[in-house]
Structure formats: C-alpha cells, structure tokens
Amino acid sequence: MAEEILLSARGLTKRFGDLTAVDGVDFAVHKGESFGFLGPNGAGKSSTMRMVGAVSPVTAGELRIFGQDPATHGPQIRARLGVVPQQDQLDQELTVEENMWVYGRYFGLSRAQVRERAVELLAFAQLTERAKDRVEPLSGGMKRRLTIARALISTPEMLLLDEPTTGLDPQARHLLWDRLFRLKRQGVTLILTTHYMDEAEQLCDRLVVMDHGRIVAEGSPQALIRQHSTREVLELRFDADDHAEFGTKIAGIGQRIEVLPDRLLVYAEDGDEAAAGVHDRGIQPLSSLVRRSTLEDVFLHLTGRTLVD
C-alpha cells in the first residue's frame, strides 16, 4: 500500500507583483516523514511554507493539504497544523506556562486539557523548571523550544518549522535537533525550511533543494550527495587574492575543481590521494583539509554558488 500523502503541490506558484517568489514547484510529503526545503535566503522557502500553512493564497498551480484546498478549507487545515514561524511570537509579559495555556485555548481545548498538555510539553521541551518564569528574559534557545512546545499543544498532524534554529548557538541548536528527532520518532510529520546543510542532513528523510523559486533537486540527503558530488572533498587555501590561477595548476586532479574566492575545492573519491597529487606537482598551499561531501557541495554543483551567497 502506498504511503499516505498529507501534502501535494503541482505547479505551485507565488507572485508578489512582478516578483515570482515560487516558480511552479512540484512536491509531495508523506505521513510520518521529515521533509525539508534547503536553500539560501530568498530561494522561496518561506513563501512556500506560508502557502502550505494556509495563510498565504496560491497564485497559480494546485496545493492540497490533508486532501483539501486551502482556498476553500483554510480553517479546517490550520486546525490540524502546528506552526513554528521564523520569528518567535511569544507573549513576553506572560509566564512560560501562561503562554501555553492561552495558545491552547485558541484551539478550543478545555482548561484541564490545556494544563495537562502544558505539563507534558514543557517536560518534553526541558522547560519544566522555567514554567513560572516570564518569557522575556529566557535565552534564545529556550524561547525556540517554547515556541515548538506551544505549536504542539493541539496535537497537530503536521508540524511546520520555518528556519527553526536560525540565530541559535551550537549547543542550543543541537538540543533543538534532539527534540525534533524525538518528535520524528513519535511519528509526527515534520516540514522544515533551512539554509543549514548540517541541519538538513540531521533532520530530513527527504528534501528539495530550492534556488530562485525553483526546485533544482529532490531526494534523501545521502542520495543527493551520491548523485551530485564525490565521496570526499579536498579544500586548499593559498596566499593569493585570486585562487583561479591555482585552479589551472592543479587541473586534472580529482573529478572536478570549484574555485571560490577564498579557497579551491577538489572533488575526489579519495581526498588524501588528491592531496598527494597536488604535492607531487610541487604546489604548496597554506592549508589543506580533506572532508566528506555535504549538501553544500550539492548546491554549489547545481547552482554555481554556495548556500550563504
């Protein structure tokens, strides 16, 4: 039996005047899947998420969420979604638990249900000890975990997360990843946008790579890396303002060479062998590093630029 499809888009398009933010994209999300949109700022990820969240009308194409059209069944769709926006929208003057109570009442939950769910979710978010504290002085990571806990209070069938860890320090990011991974194991369907390659690799079963409003690749992180890159990458830095001249000198080493402003990337199945080849030509870089290929390399290969351009 085919997996249940909770979300499908065909030719999905969003325009703002003369600007086309989302340009005819196709994708589908299955129940229990963690699905991601990977791309730089301005790629069209957030515009797509707002349409999926049934808060921004579709300009053209077809979008079905839980089998329904958001243009005619917006309230019914939103009642089954949990949404974690890019910017936290917490009430700073209320306490942590009061934020949970107020939000739960929007979904028609009784006071007893709201309080029970709040206790469970604050424990899940590791915020039990801060339940009586006001939100305003909390750290960025705590506020983000509270926003996710609040989005779960109605037991949504699908959780939308727009750039969930932007602005967080590494420790806070990893803690949030752990919470999201636990949700995924519980069978919650996750849809997230990110421009962090490591986040996409950690959290996504499958993803689409977006650039200038279009989808340029789709698959699991591992499959995309296998298809569009090599097993390893040799990074070389030289004492030069322009690395292009060194790209010419090492031509033929590895399967592909990318010239970036601050370094050269040599794509090879064996990075150490490629490094030995550079050394054999008498070329001495300031530094060299062998690493595994990532989704950043996939994006660079497909678009000719990095995710942070």
UniProtKB/TrEMBL annotation:
Transmembrane segments: none annotated. Keywords: Antibiotic resistance, ATP-binding, Cell membrane, Membrane, Nucleotide-binding, Translocase, Transport. InterPro entries: AAA+_ATPase, ABC_transporter-like_ATP-bd, ABC_transporter-like_CS, ABC_transporter_ATP-binding, P-loop_NTPase. Gene3D superfamilies: P-loop containing nucleotide triphosphate hydrolases. It comes from the Bacteria. It is a peripheral membrane protein. This is ABC transporter.
